[in-house]
Prior knowledge:
This protein is an alpha+beta fold.
Amino acid sequence: MSYLRPNWVKTLVDFVRERGGRPFLTDANTLYVGQRKHALDHIDIAYENGFSPFSTGCHIIIADGLKGTDDVAVPLPDGKYVKEAYIGRALVDADVIISLTHFKCHEMTGIGGALKNIGMGGGSRAGKKAMHSSVHPQVEQANCIGCGKCTKECAHGACTVEKNAKGRRVATIDPEKCVGCGRCIGACNRDAIVTDFGEPCTVMHGKIAEYTAAVVRGKPAFHISFVCDVSPHCDCHPMNDAPLVPDIGMAASFDPVALDKACADLCNAAPVMPNCCLAGQDTHGDIFATMHPVTRWQDAISEGERMGLGSGDYKLVKI
Ligand code: SF4
Ligand code: SF4
């Protein structure tokens, strides 16, 4: 429910067209099964959510093609984790990148900001698989009540509920089938699904930063984040809980690292909304760490800096 409004996109599309640009909207297919798993369903869901050529003024091109296989292996000689990033071809072919990001919390990366949008969003299915490969969720059976919510969220049949040796129904995850998408983590109301985020979280931020570099390097890029409806979880969930903070507005920069840091700081400086899931909790000035304690959003900033994408040392200019 908190995805970006099509009329905001139209404003930008008109701006680009008036200056002679030929804009198109793009996104790559998802790793998990859902309505963005291939280009036909992906375009259908875009239209259903109001992103038609008639409302936005431009076409949608799914970056990695019909089945998520149309990618380009972009070399990253300075990559620590990735030496070749699999990027959707339409993004590689684009002359200019303007990212539009809904800034929010994220259960695997703490914040879902510009770096996450460009890096994870720009990776083809093979790229997304590579970025998630270090994440291996497990069920803490003592906390599991066998409700099965996680099994409904898992599109790969990796998460099942069965009786354990004590005859209690609990969830288990088959590591052979699990692709590390993390959707089950957010589905569990008992916090029974955990992952060793110490190492993998940093690794995932590192891979996302490297994929972001593969998308934007060598071409002009500008980044706009909408700090509105700051939801507790990723927008891939079929619902959004109440926003954690009041709407803050739009933030923009040529530097996606500065942008993510500024957006996080703006949210953390804002009052927590009285009707949200963090109401009454002491967030210690960090709603992202409170919401997703096993993540470290600051790693996004340091890994973005490592890849030369920008600096977390920003100057905020209010307009
Ligand atoms: S959602 Fe959580 S409590 Fe329910 S079965 Fe899955 S792991 Fe267990
Ligand atoms: S991370 Fe969870 S939802 Fe994703 S494939 Fe693995 S078990 Fe399924």
